[in-house]
Amino acid sequence: MALAAVLIWGMTFVSSKVLVGLLDPYWYIVLRFLLAWGCLFLLSPRPMALLPKKQEWDMVLCGLAGVTFYYLFQNVALIHSTASNTGVITASSPLFTALILWFFGRRVKLSPLFFLGFALCIGGVAAISFSGGGGELHLLGDSFALAAALAWGAYCVLITRTQDSGLTDLQVTRKVFFWGMLLTIPPALVMGEPVPLTVFTGGGLSFWGNLLFVSLFSSALCYLLWGMATARIGSVAASVYLYLIPVVSVIGSALILDEPVSWVTFAAIAAILVGLVLSQKGNRPV
Q1: For residue 60, is pLDDT > 50?
Q2: Which element (helix H / strand E) includes 284?
């Protein structure tokens, strides 16, 4: 389930790069998760009451970290950087998952090997940011991609706290989407720009194909799969599969978007992947 999710997510950066060029990035998130929430509602149409206060707050925090913050940061990154850079950098989120668990003293012990891996990853991120396609710097966009990785790391930790809610995986995902979509509306109203109707009527197959892909597959299906995977193997073990995202996103962006891929990009990907593997070996449950 985790493998299927990350293979789809790797291609999502390509679709999102197309869509943020057509839609306001704030309203894009609202529209994407409105469609995804509607799909899940049709699969489980039973109305859900509010959970006890602590459990409902966990759902709110999951929506805030895994939908609102993650996609706001990711979309800004895609505007100011390339899809391949964004995919590579956000793949560092397993580091933040382990760091958050370690910081709060939750079942993870970090060794010097972890911090060596962390240094390799940050070095790879810096190399990608300062190389840029065609000599162009993407420091602003890549910084937002790193912030998105932190937000996703927090989501991977928070989603494990919803497992005792008494809801099914599908219902948990539906609640998370609802809160994430709701919390994205205020910044969209303040900072977003109205979406012209011509986008929907004249966007054609490219627009609707990409929108349905990110809404139904990379959102509704993949979040459901990810929640089920973390419930079965844990957030740190599931995060191992995120290592494949940069490979998929770089290949997809090069083939579909014709984005330049230099030897520095490949070297940085190698450094990040080695760093992620070392960091995984350098953390263990306690």
Answers
A1: yes
A2: strand 283-285
Per-residue tokens: 249: 């996103």
Q: What residues have CB less than 8 Å from 71, skipping those under 6 apart?
A: 29, 32, 148, 184
CB 70 within 8 A of CB 33: no
- Nearest 5°: the CA angle 148, 153, 158 is 120
Other C-beta atoms closer than 10 Å to the C-beta of 256 total 14
CA distance 28 to 39: 17
Residue 39, both tokens? 């799909």
d(CA 187, CA 203): 25
User: Which amino acid makes up residue 13?
Assistant: F
Closest CA to 9 of 126, 151, 152: 152
Name the residue among 67, 44, 4, 13 with its Cα closest to residue 214: 13
Residue type, 51: L
Q: What is the pLDDT of residue 137?
A: 55
190, HSE (Cβ side, Cα atoms, 13 Å): 5
End-to-end CA distance of the chain: give it in Å, rounded: 26
- Tell me how far apart the alpha carbons of residues 267 and 14 are, in angstroms, rounded to a whole number: 21
AA identity, residue 225? L
Whether the Cβ atoms of residue 85 and residue 145 lie closer than 8 Å to each other = yes
Contact of 180 with 30, CB cutoff 8 Å: no
Long-range contacts of 109-115 (CB under 8 A, 24+ apart): 109/283, 109/284, 109/285, 109/286, 110/282, 110/283, 111/282, 111/283, 111/284, 112/282, 113/278, 113/279, 113/281, 113/282, 114/278, 114/279, 114/281, 114/282, 114/283, 115/279, 115/282
pLDDT digits 0-9 by tens, 185-243: 999 998 888 877 777 777 678 888 889 999 999 999 998 898 888 888 777 677 767 76
